Amino acid sequence: MKKIAIITLFYHNYNYGGVLQAYALQKEIEKLGYNCDVISMDRQTMKMFVPEAKNKNNSYKNNFITFLTSLKNRIKNKLNSLLCINELKKKIKKFDFFIEKNIRKTAIVYTSDTISQLINKYDLFITGSDQVFSPISGRAETFLSFVPDEKGKISYAASIGADSITDEYGRFMKSFLKRFDVVSVREKGAKTIIDNLMGKDICKVVLDPTLLYQESWTNLAFPVNGITAESYVLLYFLGESDNEWNRAYSYAKTTGLKILNIPYNKMQQSY
Questions:
Q1: Cβ of 21: how many Cβ atoms within 10 Å?
Q2: In angstroms, rounded to a whole number, what is the distance separating the alpha carbons of residues 63 and 69?
Q3: Are the C-beta atoms of 20 and 210 separated by less than 8 Å?
Q4: Burial per residue of 100-119, b for 16 or more beta-carbon CB atoms within 10 angstroms, e otherwise
Q5: What are 182's strand-pairing partners?
Q6: Which of 64, 84, 236, 271 is a plausible cystine mate for 262, CB 3.0–4.6 Å?
């Protein structure tokens, strides 16, 4: 029986969509009769795509701005973590419980130095879903750079996470995508970008694994304390957006409904 490896943004990524898409894709592949593992891959050991500096002066300036922005975010996240440490611990514990119970993952956590060890363990490699092609969250490894030509390489419902890319990032993507046997994405915009980049129609738009999943999600669900069957407005935002929040508050006020928020990171549970 063929063995398949899923490369995705999974390890230590306590994100609902990230975990559920990994679960769903694994289940659907197993239903086809294959053995399938989600690879525990430490992206922190892997190099991000870094644009080339246009000139020396801009390089110093951009590096300084990047440093200040990173420092600001680290301080902000640290303060938020200290304020919400107990809530975060509970969240991580629940994520870990779900993963251990429902997802077959590799016990070994692979790094940039060790990920090539997977080559002889699997017959086919699939990258996706999630933003594995993103200039921010993607890595050469999520483009299956470590997989030799003789091994099968597929992207399933991959996302770029942007409406456009730079020429430089396009060259970076193209160097890897030309080695894929099958390329599929989950957004029409991503298909347009890739087809234009490759100069031909090579990309398919497919369902995200969470929508592809044939079973009922209610089999995994259970009641949450404090939430009743009454109607409410459910929010789940990956970042801070005043426009979306204002629209949600306006809708809730108009309809008289309570707002419940699923926190992405360090936000309060409900309002």
A1: 27
A2: 10
A3: yes
A4: eeebebeeeebebeebeebe
A5: 154
A6: 236
CA atoms of 62 and 55, how far apart (whole Å) = 10
Q: Where are the beta strands (DSSP E) in 150-238?
A: 152-158, 182-185, 203-205, 232-235
22, 6 contact by CB (below 8 A): yes
State the Cα–Cα distance between residues 225 and 269, nearest whole angstrom.
12
Counts of helices then strands in the chain (DSSP H, E): 7, 8
**pLDDT at site 83:** 63
Q: In sequence order, which ranges of 84-130 are alpha helices (DSSP H)?
A: 85-102
Q: How confident is the model at residue 175 (pLDDT cuts 50, 70, 90)?
A: very high
Reported as a single tens digit per residue, the pLDDT across 144-163 is 999 999 999 999 999 999 99
Q: How far apart are CA 98 and CA 176, in angstroms?
A: 33
User: What CA–CA distance (Å, rounded) separates 194 from 202?
Assistant: 8
Q: Give burial (CB, 10 Å; 0-12/13-18/19+) of 252.
A: middle
Query: What pLDDT is recorded for position 241?
Result: 75
Q: In angstroms, rounded to a whole number, what is the distance separating the alpha carbons of residues 25 and 22?
A: 5
| pTM of the complete model beyond 0.85 | no
